[in-house]
Amino acid sequence: MYKDVDRIIVVENGRIVSDCPPNQLLCTNLLTQKGIREPLYIAALKYAGCQISEKDNPQNLETMNLEGYKEQVKNWSAAISVPAAKPVSETVLEARNLCFSYERGKPIVKDISFSITQGEMISIVGTNGAGKSTLASLICGFIKPDSGTILLDGKDIAPLSIKQRGEKIGFVMQNQNQMISKSVIFDEVALGLTARKVPQDEIKQKVCDTLKICGMYPYRNWPVSAISFGQKKRITIASILVMNPRILILDEPTAGQDYAHYTEIMDFLKKLNEDFGITIIMITHDMHLMLEYTDRAIVISDGRILADDKTSRILTNKTLTELASLKETSLYTLALKCGISNPADFADRFIHYERSRKAE
Fold first, then answer.
1. Quick one: pLDDT band at residue 64, thresholds 50, 70, 90?
2. Tens of pLDDT along 235-285?
3. Is residue 138 part of a domain?
4. Which phi and psi (to 5°) does residue 244 adopt?
5. Which of 64, 76, 249, 290 lies at a CB distance of 3.0 to 4.6 Å from 123, suitable for a disulfide?
6. Within a domain: 267
7. pLDDT digits (tens, 9 = 90+) for 217-234
8. Coil, helix or strand for 167?
């Protein structure tokens, strides 16, 4: 727990299903059974086969007694074999020395350069005001850089209009309601094709195919107002997918969602990435999302790139997380307290193990 508390009340369907001290709750599997994410260090201890005891104070990793768990954690971690990284593919998006200011003399983006390969799933992280959303706006063409170049498949996209960029680079806003303009689901997904005067038969085929991919085909004639928050997110993504983009940029894709819906939307995005090769860039404050679903992250602070590295290395680098105001993963602390010399390697093994469990 981030701060010690006396009690945790778990509510489901309008009823209290648990009311107990956190030390007692964390020794059970109730949180995961109710679709709530456990702290990562608690998950790691349970994956290692540890029987967590209340007397060891599991609610606070800093003061938790780990003497009875260290060997199990080390043996479990050592037994996990992490596969080699995928070979690097061709660069799909590249930024070279991007600079931008809303006001003269007050730069928001300061000489940013990076490249992203085809089929990557990557996070862009940093505090509010770091320049993340401004960077996305530059890529999509909503604003123009003061200097620097953005290339798509090696070609400068400066001459392309917002509409032309939108056919190759889709942007999903944090609040999907700001993107929806039609009352019926089919019409919303068809909007981009209709605006481009695509023949009706082709529109129908593409929209139906896309809705099937997104799991929304049975609802194609439903009013948008009748579907859930998570389903609306899928519809906004479908309205971009129907254009067959190369890249999807999502601003806080899991904002406002509980763990069950978070998992649903992230597993859906992972499927798009793996099955269709769509490059996915996520702007996020969520360190769990960053660690669980992306192998690489770009850290931005005060308009500059502080790091471009594996997520496990970033979130187990105490100096970097403090400098960028990120929250280091509890896996880092657990690894050190258990005598594991390479916390980044431990985090990699944990994530691989967890992904393997989900795939079963």
1. very high
2. 888 998 999 899 999 988 877 677 777 888 888 888 889 888 899 999 988
3. no
4. 60, 55
5. 290
6. no
7. 999 999 999 988 778 888
8. coil
Could you tell me which residues come within 8 angstroms of residue 240 by beta carbon, excluding any fewer than 6 positions away?
A: 166, 170, 171, 172, 192, 248
Cα–Cα dist 81/174, whole Å: 36
H-helix segments, the chain: 22-25, 30-33, 40-47, 70-78, 132-140, 162-166, 185-195, 200-213, 229-241, 259-276, 287-293, 311-314, 318-323, 330-337, 343-359
* Residue 320 backbone phi and psi in degrees, to 5: -65, -45
Is residue 64, in this structure, part of any structural domain at all? yes
CB 315 within 8 A of CB 290: yes
Model pTM score: 0.86
**Domain count along the chain:** 1
| Domain membership of residue 48 as a residue range | 8-79+329-359
Exposed / middle / buried, residue 314 (Cβ in 10 Å: 0-12, 13-18, 19+): buried
Kindly state the tokens that stand for 20.
């107990």
Alpha-carbon 38 to chain mean position: 18
